[in-house]
Amino acid sequence: MESKRRNFMKNTARFAGVMGMASVAGLSPLFASENKASGKSSGKSSGQDSLTKSNSKGEKMKFVTFNNGVKMPILGFGVYQIEDLKECQRCVEDAISVGYRSIDTAQAYFNEEAVGAAIKSAIKGGVKREDLFITTKLWISHMNEKDAFKAFDTQLKKLGLDYLDLYLIHQPFGDVYGAWRAMSKLYKEGKIRAIGVSNFYPDRIVDFCLNNEVIPAINQIETHPFLQQHEAQKILNEYKIATQSWASFAEGRNDMFKNPTLSKIGAKYNKTVAQVILRWLIQRDIVVIPKTTRKARMEENFDVFDFTLDSSDMATIRAMDTNKSLFLSHQDPEAVKWLINAHKGKL
Prior knowledge:
Blueprint: H1 2-19, E1 50-54, E2 60-65, E3 71-73, E4 77-78, H2 85-98, E5 102-104, H3 112-124, E6 133-138, H4 145-159, E7 166-169, H5 176-188, E8 195-198, H6 202-210, E9 218-222, H7 230-238, E10 242-246, H8 260-269, H9 273-283, E11 286-288, H10 295-302, H11 311-318, H12 333-341
Parallel strand pairs: 4-5, 5-6, 6-7, 7-8, 8-9, 9-10, 10-11
Antiparallel strand pairs: 1-2, 2-3
């Protein structure tokens, strides 16, 4: 397992140097969960409706309501690139101790066991399973109907769970329709509360929705001040699909954390650039999962529910949009080749 993680990170770094591959990660706060430990919710919603609840520290956690009625905290904690299993477990335990309840991992992160260990520790310490929202993802090498069932069982065992809150297709390649049939069956059986996709561009989303019975609950895509995804979100809204951001801080590229525009807005509210970005995304009803291994940063990213950006701030940030990815394009043939071959024989 250790060699697999090292190879994964080495390949990721190599590809990042050539193609500019992004990090995917996240953070999340304490909430009074309305989620039940069943596979499906009986409630229906408008898909982008949101709900606020007060937590024990007085902050307000906002929720995004999926098109099947399941509610997800709008701020969550992700574990991509936390390759050391002990460190990953410590980070998730820290996040939960701060108040985070939504955890995002993936088959291709090679750390589901560590997340599972942290969940077990949290439950032993008194956190209720139904108050946790656990997400993982299916990788391309298992992207067919038969392998998807096997992968799901393995992932669930690694996480030490008897159901998932959210299961995503990680990349839009391979037999995504076969995998979706398997995921839909697991969803209908109550083993997954909601299913969704990641890195699906608008054309792929439309095709997917028009050719499947179960519509994705969410789409996780690169979204930050330099690539704001307004048109993509508009199309997702049409199909009542929630939008989730990866690389919310653009991995610090373009001197994001020193950006004068964002710094000026932050000074206005006595907030950091990171907090401004998270608040901007949250006000757009976009689920965020910024990553950190430092508990102090977890607390900082948690502290974004006590201020609201005004309309002029939102307009100022919107003007920063270049509508260009800072990382890989899923329409680049070389990127597609790399992604498909990235984990062959490793998962």
